[in-house]
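Suppose you are handed a protein chain with no further information: no name, no annotation, nothing but its sequence. What can you learn? This example shows the usual starting point.
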Amino acid sequence: MPRRKLRLYVWPEYRTDYTSGMAFAIAHSEDQARAMVTKKYDYKGMGWSPDFGPSPEVYELKPIAFEVGGGA
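A reasonable first move is to predict its three-dimensional structure. Written in structure tokens, the prediction is:
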């Protein structure tokens, strides 16, 4: 069974205890993205689960390149 395409998942209202934070993950599904962010957030192994807020914004990924030149 082919895997889903990678997508960028963005939660712009992540962990809004005092002000809005932001979380993002590049994953094959929203479930996988949430699991990745939760694992990263639970850095001390306490079993904490972050507040993701509303559904994420989802962006399909396309090949892209960036370049910043320098010089005199």
